[in-house]
C-alpha cells in the first residue's frame, strides 16, 4: 500500500508526519499528488466494489460514497464493519456513517428518500473566488461566473432548488468584482448516438502577467511552422492543427497585431449558402472559379452533405450549430407547436427569437466558444439573436435579407481584425435558397445566382488576403439542405383523405406535422392516411424510424406524413 513515502525532503531526510515515522501523506502540491491519490483510490475501490458493486460505490480523493438498498439496519452495521476491516488491512483509518437517508458529499447534499439533491457548503464556509481585478488572464476571469453557474445548475435537481442557492454565490461573485446574474441551466439532452472524436493536441501555455508585453506565443508557433515543414519526419506531431497556443500574454505594441489575444482553440469562419449550388441535370454547365480556388487550397465533399431529417432551414442550421439532432436540440421544424407552452412557432414570426423556443438545453457553438474564452461573431444565423444559456454572441446582427453580401463579408472581416477580435465567425447568405424556391433549382435564374455566389466567394478570398487572414483561419462553406423541382400537378391533398376539422397541420411539405384536436381521433386520422398514396409514408410518433432521430421531443407531432421524391415532385398540403 505504501506506493511511496513522499517526494519532499527536509535536511536531506524524507519528509514524514511529525512524531511519526510510519505515517505519511500524499502531500498537497506534490507534482504527482493527484495521480497517486487516484491510483491508491482505484486500488481500494476495487476491493470495496466486491462488497458493494461497482455501480454503487465511488471515491473522490479521500471522500467516498456508497449506496445500499434492501438492507436492514443490522445488515448495514455488519457491512460497515466489513468495509472498515478492508481499510484496516491497508493500515488506513476510516470513519463510516451507516443507515442514513441524507448525506453531504463534496458540494452536494443527496436525499435518498425523495431522490432530490442540492448544493452544499460546510457550516461557516466562506465562498471565495479569484478577484476580477487580479493579475490573471482576462479570459480565465470571464469564465469564473459561467463556471460557477454551470456547477450550481448541475447539482440542483430543479430550478427552484437552484434559485434558493444562487443568491449566496451571486453575492460572493459580486464581492470579488464579478457582476453576473445566475440563471438555471437545465441538463442537456442525452444523445447516445453522438459521435465522439478525440484529437491529440499539444498546448503551449506561456505564463501570464499584466506587466509583461511580448509576442512569444506567435513567435513560438512560427518556429513550429518554420522547422517542421511538410515532409519532416515529425511534421505529423508538430503542425498548426495539433499544436495550439493559449495566447494569454498581451502583445507588444511594436508587433504586427495590437490588443490582447484571447485563448484560441481554433480560428474559423463558417459560411452558409443554403440550397443546392450546382444544377443536378448538368453540373458542368456553369463555371465556379472561386469555389475551385478554395477546393484546390483545401478539401470538399464531392457528394454533398447529408442533412438531418427533416430537411428544413431552422432545424438543420441549429443541428450544424449544436451537433445535435432535432429531437435533442428542440428546433424540430420551421413551424412548430409546443404542447407545454401551448403556443405555436412560425419562422420569421414576432416570437421566433424568444429564448423559450431556443434555450431548451442544447448548446450552440458560439456559446461553447465563449465559455472557453473565445469570442464569436454571428451574422444572421438562426438562434444567434436569442439569449441561450445566459449568453449571446459577442457580435451579432438582426436578420435582414436586404443586406448586400459584400457588406456582410466586410463586417465579419472587421470583427476578426478590430481591437477585440473574434476567433469564430458564422455568416448566413440567403442565396441560392431564395431563388431556388421561387424559380426552381434547374431554372436559368438559378445559374445567374450561382455565378453571383461564386463572385461573393471571390470577394471573400480577396478581403481575407488583404487582411492577412487567408492562411491563418479555417474556412468552412456548407449548406443546410438541398432542393428538387416541384410539379404543380403532383400534389398530395391531405383533405382528400381526412376531415380537416379533426386536425391542425402544424408544418407541411415535405414532412407534414399533424396535430389531432382530440387524442381520441389520432388512430382514425392515422388509418385514414395510411397507404392512401404511393409516395406518402405515414408514421405515428412512436413508430418513426430510429435512424431519423426524430421521435423523442414534445414538439414532434403525434402523426407525421412524409412525401417521398420517388422520381416526381410532391408537396403535402391541405386543400385550399
Principal-axis shape equals globular
* Contiguous uncertain segments of 5+ residues: 246-266, 566-570
So what's the CATH class of the domain at 268-478?
Alpha Beta
Helix content: 25-40%
Q: What's the total helix number? A: 14
CATH 2nd-level architecture of the domain at 268-478:
3-Layer(aba) Sandwich
- Order of strands across the widest beta sheet? 14-13-15-10-16
In angstroms, what is the radius of gyration?
Answer: 30 Å
Supply the helix-strand structural class.
alpha/beta
Query: What share of the residues does DSSP label as strand, in percent?
Result: 15-25%
Give a short account of the largest sheet: 5 strands, parallel
Instruction: Compute the separation of the termini in Å.
Output: 81 Å
Number of strands: 22
What fold name goes in the CATH topology slot of the domain at 268-478? Alkaline Phosphatase, subunit A
Mean of pLDDT: 81
> What is the H level of CATH, i.e. the homologous superfamily of the domain at 268-478?
Alkaline Phosphatase, subunit A
How would you summarize this macromolecular structure in one to three sentences?
It is built from 14 helices and 22 strands. With 576 residues, it is an alpha/beta fold. It is globular, with a radius of gyration of 30 Å.
Amino acid at each position: 500500500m505504501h506506493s511511496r513515502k513522499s517526494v519532499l525532503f527536509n535536511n536531506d531526510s524524507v519528509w514524514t508526519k511529525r512524531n511519526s515515522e510510519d505515517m505519511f501523506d500524499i502531500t498537497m502540491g506534490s507534482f504527482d499528488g493527484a495521480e497517486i491519490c487516484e491510483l491508491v483510490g482505484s486500488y481500494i475501490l476495487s476491493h470495496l466494489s466486491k462488497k458493494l458493486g461497482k455501480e454503487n460505490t465511488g471515491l473522490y480523493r479521500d471522500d467516498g460514497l456508497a449506496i445500499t438498498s434492501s438492507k436492514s439496519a443490522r445488515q448495514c452495521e455488519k457491512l460497515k464493519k466489513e468495509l472498515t476491516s478492508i481499510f484496516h488491512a491497508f493500515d488506513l483509518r476510516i470513519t463510516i456513517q451507516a443507515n442514513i437517508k441524507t448525506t453531504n458529499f463534496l458540494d452536494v447534499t443527496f436525499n435518498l428518500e425523495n431522490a432530490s439533491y442540492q448544493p452544499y457548503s460546510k457550516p461557516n464556509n466562506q465562498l471565495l473566488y479569484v478577484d476580477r481585478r487580479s493579475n490573471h488572464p482576462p479570459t480565465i476571469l470571464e469564465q469564473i461566473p459561467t463556471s460557477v453557474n454551470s456547477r450550481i445548475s448541475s447539482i440542483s435537481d430543479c430550478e427552484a432548488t437552484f434559485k434558493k442557492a444562487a443568491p449566496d454565490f451571486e453575492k460572493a461573485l459580486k464581492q470579488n468584482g464579478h457582476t453576473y446574474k445566475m440563471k438555471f441551466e437545465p441538463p442537456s439532452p442525452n444523445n447516445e448516438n453522438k459521435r465522439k472524436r478525440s484529437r491529440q493536441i499539444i498546448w503551449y501555455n506561456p505564463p501570464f502577467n499584466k506587466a509583461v508585453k511580448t509576442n512569444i506565443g506567435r513567435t513560438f508557433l512560427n518556429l513550429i511552422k518554420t522547422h517542421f515543414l511538410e515532409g519532416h519526419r515529425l511534421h505529423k506531431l508538430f503542425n498548426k492543427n495539433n499544436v495550439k497556443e493559449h495566447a494569454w500574454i498581451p502583445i507588444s505594441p511594436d508587433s504586427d497585431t495590437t490588443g490582447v489575444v484571447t485563448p484560441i482553440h481554433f480560428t474559423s469562419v463558417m459560411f452558409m449558402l443554403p440550397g443546392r449550388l450546382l444544377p443536378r441535370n448538368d453540373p458542368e454547365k456553369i463555371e465556379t472559379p472561386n469555389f475551385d480556388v478554395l477546393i484546390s487550397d483545401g478539401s470538399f465533399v464531392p457528394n454533398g452533405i447529408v442533412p438531418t431529417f427533416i430537411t428544413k432551414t431552422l432545424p438543420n442550421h441549429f443541428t450544424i450549430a449544436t451537433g445535435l439532432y432535432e429531437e435533442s436540440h428542440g428546433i424540430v421544424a420551421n413551424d412548430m407547436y409546443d404542447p407545454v407552452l401551448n403556443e405555436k412557432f412560425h419562422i420569421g414570426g414576432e416570437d421566433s427569437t424568444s429564448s423559450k423556443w431556443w434555450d431548451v438545453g442544447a448548446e450552440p457553438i458560439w456559446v461553447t466558444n465563449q465559455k472557453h474564452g473565445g469570442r464569436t461573431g454571428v451574422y444572421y444565423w438562426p438562434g444567434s439573436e436569442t439569449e441561450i444559456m445566459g449568453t449571446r454572441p459577442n457580435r451579432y446582427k438582426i436578420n435582414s435579407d436586404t443586406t448586400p453580401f459584400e457588406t456582410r463579408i466586410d463586417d465579419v472581416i472587421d470583427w476578426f481584425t478590430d481591437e477585440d477580435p473574434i476567433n469564430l465567425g458564422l455568416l448566413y447568405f440567403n442565396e441560392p435558397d431564395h431563388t431556388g424556391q421561387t424559380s426552381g433549382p434547374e431554372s436559368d435564374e438559378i445559374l445567374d445566382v450561382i455565378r453571383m455566389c461564386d463572385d461573393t466567394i471571390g470577394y471573400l478570398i480577396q478581403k481575407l488576403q488583404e487582411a492577412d487572414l487567408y492562411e491563418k483561419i479555417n474556412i468552412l462553406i456548407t449548406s443546410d439542405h438541398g432542393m428538387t423541382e416541384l410539379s404543380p400537378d403532383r400534389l398530395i391533398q391531405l383533405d382528400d383523405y381526412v376531415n380537416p376539422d379533426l386536425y391542425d397541420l402544424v408544418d407541411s411539405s415535405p414532412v407534414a406535422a399533424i396535430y389531432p384536436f382530440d387524442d381520441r381521433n389520432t388512430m382514425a386520422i392515422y388509418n385514414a392516411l395510411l397507404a392512401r398514396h404511393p409516395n406518402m409514408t405515414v408514421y405515428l410518433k412512436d413508430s418513426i424510424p430510429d435512424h431519423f432521430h426524430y421521435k423523442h421531443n414534445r414538439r414532434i407531432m403525434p402523426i407525421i406524413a412524409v412525401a417521398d421524391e420517388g422520381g416526381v415532385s410532391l408537396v403535402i398540403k391541405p386543400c385550399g
